[in-house]
Amino acid sequence: MKNLEAYQDAIAYFRSPQAIRERCNFIFNLALSDQLQHFCYHPEMLEGVAGFVLDNIRQNYPNLQVPFHSRWRHFEVGNIPRLEKLQKQLNDLSLVEQTQAKLDLAIISVLLDAGAGEKWYYQESETGLVWRRSEGLAIASYEMFGQGLFSSDPEFPFQVDAKGLMNLTESQFISGFQVNNNNPLIGIKGRLELLKKLGKTLYDYPHLFGEYNPRPGKLVDYFLTQTQDNQLSAVTVLTAILEGLGEIWPGRLTLNQVNLGDVWYYPGLEALDSKYPFVPFHKLSQWLTYSLLEPLQDLGLEIIDLDQLTGLAEYRNGGLCLDLGLLELKDPNLSEIFHKPDSSVIIEWRSLTIIILDKIADIICHKLNFTPQEFPLVKVLQGGTWNAGREIAQQHRSDSSPPLKLESDGTVF
């Protein structure tokens, strides 16, 4: 019994944003004393990087009214009123049912949001416009959702349900993403497998996804049971996602047969925790959490504890630090080869990125004379670090690829 409790405590810890910060901070402190294998940290560059991000924020949002960093921003690309159209299509539903549909869309779109690669593009059917990378994946998933590709009910296309996901075929997927020999998409099999696993896992967690016709969007019903005085903790949202979606991630560390998700072994942590020398990031799960908050706010809920979530350990934020010289590779040749997510160079890069994002956010709040509550990290990411990372990547490399090459299976980055 004690063993089981110890496992449960460890699993709960590695699913917490507190664990992300604590473990990443330990690795960051190793960088401060130059004990990392792969990176040097140059603190004298921090102010300049924060200044570059602040310039980006002022340019993108001159009035400083920055929305949350979430998938909903990508649906707005090109200033085309896609979300207004979606709202009209959902208007006959109750407010809770509308929120279920919006959560369905956000969840499916985020799960399909791992890096597309430099070659893939998507031509939007309604406008004929061509989109690439995250925006392309967003518009592709938005159109597939509207066509009912993820729904098993022809009468109601605007849903994602377990049966619809499990019935997905590779040919439907390839067609939906417009993939062909001249338009390759990274990790197509990994993405499809992820959605099929999601379909199965929806049945396994009826308290989260509903007993009858389970859907990811039915998380809203669960969240409504977790509110107090109409307040919902962002950590509650993240924890539910990590519990409910944990089983879908392939090839991950497990504790007592429970999949930990975006959590990795790092030898340098053995000095801190010889039993579980792991570092969690939960990048896609936190990106997903941020993307669920707006529909939940539209439902009238007040989101609290937003400051407990972390930045996103992905290649735009990490690339910003590397391209601007805040981080430096000890072996420059590492930028020429591909790295898997479990490699020590990627784990160090992601860990440092998490802590640096907190430091950038602190500087920006100070310069703007805002409190962290008035200008939370999720706005710094949107304003912000992600755009700045892409901008500097375009300046450094014609294909705007990240400064480190990632071997992605479509489920991490």
Explained architecture:
This protein is mainly alpha-helical. The protein is 51% helix and 8% strand. The chain has two domains: 1-69 and 253-412, no CATH class; 70-226, no CATH class. The strands form six sheets. Strands 1-10 form a two-stranded antiparallel sheet. A two-stranded antiparallel sheet has the order 2-3. The chain has a two-stranded parallel ribbon with strand order 4-9. The protein has 17 helices and twelve strands. The chain has helices at residues 2-14, 17-32, 46-60, 71-75, 82-90, 95-111, 133-146, 162-166, 170-176, 188-204, 206-209, 219-225, 234-245, 283-298, 315-323, 344-368, 377-396; strands at 39-41, 121-123, 130-132, 231-233, 254-255, 258-259, 263-265, 278-280, 302-304, 327-329, 338-339, 405-406. A hairpin with a 2-residue loop joins strand 5 and strand 6 (258-259). It is globular, with a radius of gyration of 21 Å. Pfam families: DUF1688. Residues 394-413 are annotated as: Disordered.
Topology record:
Blueprint: H1 2-14, H2 17-32, E1 39-41, H3 46-60, H4 71-75, H5 82-90, H6 95-111, E2 121-123, E3 130-132, H7 133-146, H8 162-166, H9 170-176, H10 188-204, H11 206-209, H12 219-225, E4 231-233, H13 234-245, E5 254-255, E6 258-259, E7 263-265, E8 278-280, H14 283-298, E9 302-304, H15 315-323, E10 327-329, E11 338-339, H16 344-368, H17 377-396, E12 405-406
Parallel strand pairs: 4-9, 11-12
Antiparallel strand pairs: 1-10, 2-3, 5-6, 7-8
Region (Disordered): 394-413
InterPro entries: DUF1688
Organism: Planktothrix tepida PCC 9214
